[in-house]
Predict the 3D structure of the following.
Amino acid sequence: MPGVFATTITPSYKELRSIYVGAGAMKSATLSPGKVTVLIEANEEFSVEGTLSSYGLLTGMAKLYRSLDLKDGSKLDSLAKRPV
């Protein structure tokens, strides 16, 4: 079952080029620490791989920041699904 998560980009997330998916995402069975592939629904050609920590911080997202032109205060909704 997919999980839906929302975050707001803060200056520290932007500097680190990271996304905080939160503790709720980590408590769900949807996400677990390790390598994560991020896709953009409206752009089938986009893909970036990052690393999700056990605290819910997804690192390695510079390509995502550039592609979506994320800035301080930007809102990001995500849908997490396990691969089949």
